[in-house]
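ok so for the tutorial part 2 we go from a plain amino acid sequence to predicted structure tokens. step 1 is just haveing the sequence, like this:
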Amino acid sequence: MSTLEKTILALDAHGGDRGLDVSVPAALAALEADSRLEIILTGNRSGIQSALELNPAFEPLSARLHVRHAESVIEMDAKPAHVLRRGRDSSMWKAFEAVAAGEADACVSGGSTAAMMVTGVKVLGMLKGIQRPALMAWVPNSRAYTGMLDLGANLNVSAQQLVQFAVMGFVTGRVAEGIENPSVGLLNVGHEDSKGHDVVREAHERLQSLPLNYVGFIEGHGIFDGTVDVAVCDGFAGNLVLKSTEGLARMLMQQFRSAFSENLASRAGAMLAGPTLKRMLARLDPSAHNGAPLLGLNGVAIKSHGSSDLNGMTRAILEAGREARRQVPGRIEALVHEHQLESES
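step 2 — the prediction. this is what the tokens look like for a chain of 345 residues:
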């Protein structure tokens, strides 16, 4: 287990679309960026070892990088039943097992969300009182960032689960992001108490009685105008918003680059606006915000985007280290118990 000096992460080396081509250099980049990290790479030993030996950064970092063999890889389209039946020898399962055994403080994978959810629940178990895990990520808004959950782990939820998501998001914002009193909003089709379906209206009523900084219903634009620090929704809506946001960000980045390279005048404008433009594009870049914690599990698990590049995967690994050091799961469990949220179904 970790101390203040060392944090051990287990990285599913084959998770995601690019596998070892991204996971190995990202692991090395994360070790270079954070001297307190050690990483266990889970996957095919010979393939991982070959990829490491071809990378010139490996030798000076080899003492902090270990390989744990796994026989198989969970495919991105694998069904939950297949994962439970055939996934025990997979690279993802081995990463979760390292956390469950106390050999790692957190795990990271770019594999399927459904596979991570079912593996996490089976291997790590749930925090006492939490009914379902929820994915949370931070998206840029007009002043800083908004945390969103759930992002696809749960397509259908109850009012009580939305309340628990709000508690998990509040704790994560306060502990992991250092927001003193995170404001929390519930995504709906309008601000009025009468708007929305029964589930969101019931969750709204319950949240009003809790000692959270709950501001009530927000609409979609409230995620991006900085109205709240944390936006709560079901996984269906959250995944649509996130994917749409990522697509819009990539389109804007492409449009900016095209506009500033059209002719001599636009290129001159780009030179003058260069520093400001780079800062803006860096905030919009989805890879800069990669690394979504799967909250509610009895341990830290970080989901990396399946199509992550080197920068994105490195960001997810570093995020896992941050959350492990801040002991986010234990803080969530304490608040749920304090307000007896575990007693409701």
